[in-house]
Amino acid sequence: MSEPHQRDFLDPAVLGKLLRLPLNARSPMMGSVAGRHRSPVRGSAIEFAQYRKYVPGDDTRRLDWRTWGRTDRYYIKEFEADTNLRLCLIIDTSGSMGYGEPGSTRLDYARRLAGTLAYLAGQQGDAIGLYGASTGFDRETPPRRGPRHLGLVLDHIAGLRAEGESGLVQAIHEAAEKIRQRALIVIFSDFLFPPEPLREAFQHLRFRKHDVSVFHLLDREEIDFTFDRPTRFLDLEGGPSLLADPSLIQRRYREAVKEYLETVNDIVNHSSVDYHRTFLDERYDEVLARFLLGRNPKTTRTAR
Question: What's this model's pTM, rounded to 2 decimal places?
């Protein structure tokens, strides 16, 4: 067996701070064991869900006798059944994810985000899966629970390499078909390709009732384009290089970027995706804290 990879993308100080923030799903989950997440299956947990009319065969211990006394009709109390969550991480491993200095590439940033979320989910008793996406699933680790499996996922995250062309859209469709039960699917990518095919891919995940989150990883220079001298631009996914004078292409470049980001915004808004545009100079612990806080369930209830 190969030796485990170094897990230097995990920072104990960050883990200690974020462990106080739970990782919640935005929609009901279905798991194999009791857990802390809301399930679409009605059960007899603590939190009341609704009343329904009694039918023969129902458990009479769940009859609401006060309602019977007021209405002379039999009603059953239903409660939310809690379950564990399946966290499925899809990490883009195409060549452009290797952009940046060694140790600070886009893929390194994705490792920190994904590895920390995996650890937090593992501490909650949730199942964790990992999918590396370049031209399809080049790394597939189906979701399971337990410390040993968490260690395997973290080793696989450490072993990911950025190379080749992007096959993320195809990988998302494969995920929608392979991940059978409802899951929280978190995608990490730069999305440096024509974005329109993402619309159908995200809708495929939503059709399967998955809770979908996206971290769109960008360098500020890709947006601002502040280069001021002739520069050779390299295609990290194998295409030809381009020597250009930024002053000649700056205006058109910024217009194209604006159109691209508007298209991405439209796609995620219409697909109900939890979208996070993230710049590589942001502190990843602050990015994750915002993500976790934004997923806290609403505590207020409508009065009846």
Answer: 0.78
